[in-house]
Q: What sequence folds into this?
């Protein structure tokens, strides 16, 4: 498993813990780093994701919410939203990661941490956003 995959997994767990546990993202990331002891390369990507997510989180949520069809934003689960936010962050702000890779990883994370239905939902939302970006 690559460093970016490990970083994404750590960040999904941290975003979830922050939301559910009422912690700051910084606290939740620090706890996950302590538990998982990532390599230096993985930690560097985690830090990059953390900083970018703090900077662009509200915008990412607005874009996700605007792309939902037939769903209210409140219906999106915490895990699914965390996965969507991280994938969209990579797509919009970390161009060295190809969009297809970010989407594929997001779908895999949804399968791992949620369900096949969630993976289809994540894929659909990200695909819709990409199509809107291309216009």
A:
């Amino acid at each position: 498993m690559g460093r970016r995959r490990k970083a994404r997994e750590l960040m999904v767990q941290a975003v979830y813990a922050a939301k559910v546990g009422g912690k700051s993202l910084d606290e939740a990331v620090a706890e996950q780093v302590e538990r998982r002891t990532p390599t230096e390369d993985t930690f560097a990507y985690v830090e990059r994701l953390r900083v970018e997510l703090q900077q662009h989180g509200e915008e990412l949520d607005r874009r996700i919410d605007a792309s939902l069809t037939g769903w209210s934003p409140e219906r999106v689960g915490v895990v699914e939203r965390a996965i969507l936010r991280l994938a969209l962050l990579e797509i919009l702000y970390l161009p060295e990661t190809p969009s297809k890779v970010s989407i594929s990883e997001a779908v895999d994370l949804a399968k791992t941490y949620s369900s096949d239905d969630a993976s289809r939902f994540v894929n659909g939302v990200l695909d819709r956003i990409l199509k809107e970006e291309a216009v």
Remarks:
- The CA atoms of residues 35 and 42 lie 14 Å apart.
- The first helix runs from residue 3 to 21.
- The chain has a mean pLDDT of 92.
